[in-house]
Design brief:
This protein is an alpha/beta fold. The chain contains 7 helices and 14 strands. The strands form 4 sheets. A 6-stranded mixed β-sheet has the order 8-10-3-7-4-9. It has a 3-stranded mixed β-sheet with strand order 6-5-12. Strands 11-13-14 form a 3-stranded parallel β-sheet. The protein starts with 5 loop residues before the first helix and ends in an 11-residue tail after the last strand.
């Protein structure tokens, strides 16, 4: 006879909600996620000189130390979800020497197939005109600044609607002869752990400061497209990572729990598939 206990019924219902609604765990500690419904996407309005400027950071700009390197006064941020844009591993700087693949963003419409989650999470923060110009310079290799309607933004801190202002996001530019698919992680342009650490550490900072944003790090991972086996551990001390990054094991725990199929294939540099002399 079927077990009809209320407790098991709730468990069965919970199991159907998918990865984004599951309880995550860091190493052996369970972490409850809070995944809000997507905000409605609308067409961006024209920028107004009388409105304050806000940048939406969705990668390294989430982290305090990385963000304030360019915008020294960007001490206060608010976690956000932006509908109609997706993040993925397809940002590459075609420069001399070795270079990794970074996360970038595009409109959902630019993808050949609609993603499971048509939004990204990040932070919104006020910038002066000088800081906006400095961020333009920082992101000038393959990105362009585009305005986002405040109506496409959902605040994840429980603080209500996004305040009035000019909201800017940096999207990737691709040429017709070299589209997004030509910028995915490869042996020449792998994902590197040191950059992943910056992004996930920024997400953990958000969780620590905004209780309503529990699960922000897992949301980042799930809503980032094109994770790859071309992923190297370039930490200065990969076998003792806590010496350089105190929360390295926390970061590793989140990655191992959320995308185990990629995490277990990370290789300490140099990886066997990397070009050049091997150690």
């Amino acid at each position: 006879m079927a077990n009809t206990s209320p407790k098991k019924g709730k468990s069965a219902l919970k199991a159907k909600k998918g990865k984004l609604a599951k309880a995550g765990k860091i190493i052996h500690a369970k972490r409850k996620k809070a995944i809000p419904k997507p905000a409605k996407r609308t067409k961006a309005s024209k920028a107004s000189a009388s409105f304050p400027d806000y940048i939406i950071g969705y990668g390294s700009l989430i982290e305090f130390s990385s963000r304030t390197r360019t915008a020294k006064d960007a001490l206060y941020v608010r976690p956000v979800q932006v509908m109609g844009y997706v993040r993925g591993w397809f940002a590459q700087a075609k420069t001399a020497g070795y270079s990794p693949t970074y996360v970038g963003a595009v409109l959902v419409d630019k993808l050949k197939a609609r993603p499971r989650y048509p939004f990204l999470n990040g932070v919104a923060y006020f910038v002066t005109k000088a800081e906006l110009a400095a961020t333009d310079e920082r992101e000038d290799a393959g990105y362009e600044r585009v305005q986002v309607s405040s109506q496409a933004i959902k605040m994840l801190d429980g603080g209500g609607d996004a305040p009035e202002g000019n909201y800017w996001i940096y999207l990737n530019k691709f040429s017709p002869s070299n589209e997004l698919e030509g910028h995915l992680p490869s042996a020449d342009f792998p994902i590197v752990q040191s950059y992943v650490d910056i992004c996930i550490n920024g997400c953990l900072e958000i969780e620590a400061n905004f209780p309503a944003s529990k699960g922000f790090a897992e949301m980042f991972i799930h809503t980032t497209l094109f994770w790859s086996d071309y992923w190297v551990n370039d930490r200065p001390m990969p076998r003792r990572p806590f010496m350089e990054r105190s929360n390295a094991y926390t970061i590793d725990g989140i990655l191992a729990e959320t995308i185990p199929e990629y995490f277990e294939n990370i290789r300490i540099e140099p990886a066997s598939w990397e070009k050049g002399p091997q150690m």
